[in-house]
Amino acid sequence: MVSKKDIKLISSLKHKKFRDLNSAFVVEGIKSISEFLISQFKLVKLFSIDCSAFDFVTNQIEVDYNELKKISFFNNPDDHLAIFEIPNKNPVDHNNLIIALESIRDPGNLGTIIRTCEWFGIKDVICSNDSVDCFNPKVIQSAMGSLSRMNVNYVDLNSYLKNTKLDLIGATLNGKSIYKTDLQFDKGILIFGNEANGVSDKLCDVLDYNLTIPRSGINDFPDSLNLSISVGIFLGEIKRKIFSD
Amino acid sequence: MVSKKDIKLISSLKHKKFRDLNSAFVVEGIKSISEFLISQFKLVKLFSIDCSAFDFVTNQIEVDYNELKKISFFNNPDDHLAIFEIPNKNPVDHNNLIIALESIRDPGNLGTIIRTCEWFGIKDVICSNDSVDCFNPKVIQSAMGSLSRMNVNYVDLNSYLKNTKLDLIGATLNGKSIYKTDLQFDKGILIFGNEANGVSDKLCDVLDYNLTIPRSGINDFPDSLNLSISVGIFLGEIKRKIFSD
Fold first, then answer.
1. Which terminus, N or C, of chain A has the lesser number of Cβ atoms within 10 Å?
2. A6-41 residue pLDDT tens
3. How far apart are CA B50 and CA B70, in angstroms?
């Protein structure tokens, strides 16, 4: 049975302020919870309709469907809901390609980007401080477990990029075609801007490379690609070299 | 002012059954509505907080924010909401590359795929009959106007693919690497499966090419890429030839 205290805590974890205050966040669904359980993340408490699914977990509370529906952030909850501790961040590994996101707003995009990054072997995502929180429930949901293995840091992106010696590659709408550039980047920072405004002028000023996915439609629509699609195409194109050798 | 009849009609258009019954669907937001207005789609009625934005539209009703909030499908409605007629479908153009989607469920994915397809010059998307409806409000939202220029047909995909002479290229998890294949497809049908299950065995049996975006991460995670990301990477890779020549 879920206590009133737990209900209050879980409900508060919908909001970043309370996630920070409690150093905790919520993961839902058997697949994601399984992946967080075998990661570095530390479980606080698990609420299950069917405790046998995670019978090795001691800190587990059996609940019925109505209780789960009460604590879940989704309309159709899966059978399990877990609270995990927010861990300390690891330092960024500068020997690999890093993805930087400026003022990203859409949690679904951030989650999908984290999942895509993992597919392509990226270990570090850095976000500007005003970006959506990576422990937002919708990020967790769309990252499908990949967040448990990705190092996501929040930084003053402007000053971070000014102070690094790594190659800075920006994804913009007016750069050189990625298909006419030899994208041999096994390190460096690949920078994507906000969904509506793209990479800001301030950050454009510090780029070493300004690259674009060319549009091949016959008219001037759409204005742009979805942000996570752009990340996928850039990473595919950068990694292509490895696979086609 | 919005009439009770209009409120009832708009609310019903959230559901496919009533969209089909009324041959109508809802578009929200100035950008998408603008694009539908200059397309082949026929406006039924426009509800605006600021009528001057579309002063050329005669069939327009001025509303206040509270009225708009009442009829909008979203929590934070934009200033305009329009009802458009569902048009007759155009036949599929077999002289271009066509995207086929099997049992796609997520409206956000379908919308993003339609937007991505337009970016890469695709004109036709065909969906299996059990796929999410392209006039679903979330599809319209994530397609960002691109649906107004895309020909989306719903078919018995199995029999459609069996009866075509076009090349059938399937995106699966166990095919040949797209980076080791010469993707010279200016026509043919590129087939993507359901979010959870991929291309079904039935459809796999009729494929001419079985292709995969290879994973470059060090472990076996994630299981797969998001569906719309896969479409983006496949299209980028197919179109790369055009741009790099």
1. C
2. 999 999 999 999 999 999 999 999 999 999 999 999
3. 17
A114 and A227 both lie in a single domain: yes
A75 & A174 share domain? no
ipTM of predicted assembly, 2 dp? 0.95
- Distance, in angstroms, between A183 CA and closest chain B CA? 13
pLDDT at B245: 67
Q: How many domains does chain B have?
A: 2
Q: How far is CA A207 from CA A26, A91, A169, in A?
A: 37, 23, 6
Same domain, B101 and B81: no
In terms of CA atoms, which chain A residue is nearest residue B242?
A216
> What CATH number did the domain enclosing B81 receive?
3.30.1330.30
Residues A112 and A80 in one domain: no
The Cα–Cα gap between A32 and A12 comes to 21
Test mutation, B183, B229, B234, B243, chain A, max A CBs within 10 A: B229
pTM for the structure as a whole: 0.96
- Tell me if B243 and A177 make a contact (CB, 8 A cut-off): yes
Report CB contact under 8 Å: B215, A119: yes
Give the closest of B121, B232, B240 to A229, CB-based.
B232
Closest chain A C-alpha to B3 CA, distance in angstroms: 31
* Segment B188-197 mean pLDDT: 96
